[in-house]
Amino acid sequence: MRSSVGDRIFNVANWLILGIVAILTIFPIYYVVVVSFTDPAEYIRKSFILFPEKWSLASYRYLLSTDAFARSLGVSAFLAVVGTICSLVVTASLAYALSRKRLRGRNVILLLILVTILFNPGMIPQYMLVRQLHLINSLWSLILPALASGWNVILMKNFFDSIPAELEESAAIDGSNDLSTFFRIILPLSLPSLAAFGLFYAVGYWNQFFNALIYLNDAAKWPIQVMLQNMLLNADNTELQADAFMAPPPAETLKMAAVVAATVPILCVYPFLQKHFAKGAMVGSVKG
């Protein structure tokens, strides 16, 4: 069918508007990356740079040579790896147990989980709980309170409901107990959902910021997001002291390099989970 003049005008307007929105969205990211790789001497001469004449890794070398920034990267990596593993173990175990109809009190537990989704106790009760558990100034204060999400548990439970019960019956006939069935049969079949929820948990732990500000008093235990916020607010950050023989780059290039360095590691996780993530993103959200 031949499109009318009105349709062509509408399509052109759509492309124009979407193109402008795309440029406005991509430009800040582009500018951050470009400034982070700009030679410090060139940045001092120019107030605005779209494409540097000389590329440089000086800001990254200075940033990664500082003990505070490298330590904060290690803290965030610990939270992302250990926290994600713990969250997946708790979420998958609880969801699998709730998916078995023979579990006594199953409906009561599901109701309690639903209450946690609908009602948030707030910051003060959570802080009091963390303090009573003696987790203040401990990295576990960022992991244990966020160990499992009620919404994720329900979604994964719906996925486990779709697995035929005959698989468990066959495994039981062969002498497999519940733990062996769970780890050898159920979990291998659940890789798409584990990949999807694992990515959600990893991003959440990597981006820990507000809870870290509340629970961590020691700057040596700050994750990368808190360190980045401290850098952005304080251009002359005394926490970032590199080798005395290494001249510090301009504060702006250092900030941009910190933003890139704090973002790239979690972005690198996605390609390894992409195979399962596309299939598992909607796992358990619809139950037929």
TrEMBL record:
Any matching Pfam family: BPD_transp_1
Example GO BP: transmembrane transport
InterPro entries: MetI-like, MetI-like_sf
SUPFAM superfamilies noted in UniProt: MetI-like
Domain ABC transmembrane type-1: 73-273
UniProt xrefs under PROSITE patterns: ABC_TM1
Chief localisation class: membrane
Transmembrane segments: 12-33, 73-96, 108-127, 139-160, 181-203, 254-273
Keywords, in A-Z order: Cell membrane, Membrane, Transmembrane, Transmembrane helix, Transport
PANTHER family in the record: ABC TRANSPORTER PERMEASE PROTEIN MG189-RELATED-RELATED (PTHR43744), POLYGALACTURONAN_RHAMNOGALACTURONAN TRANSPORT SYSTEM PERMEASE PROTEIN YTCP (PTHR43744:SF9)
Family of the protein in this entry: Belongs to the binding-protein-dependent transport system permease family.
UniProt name for this protein: Carbohydrate ABC transporter permease
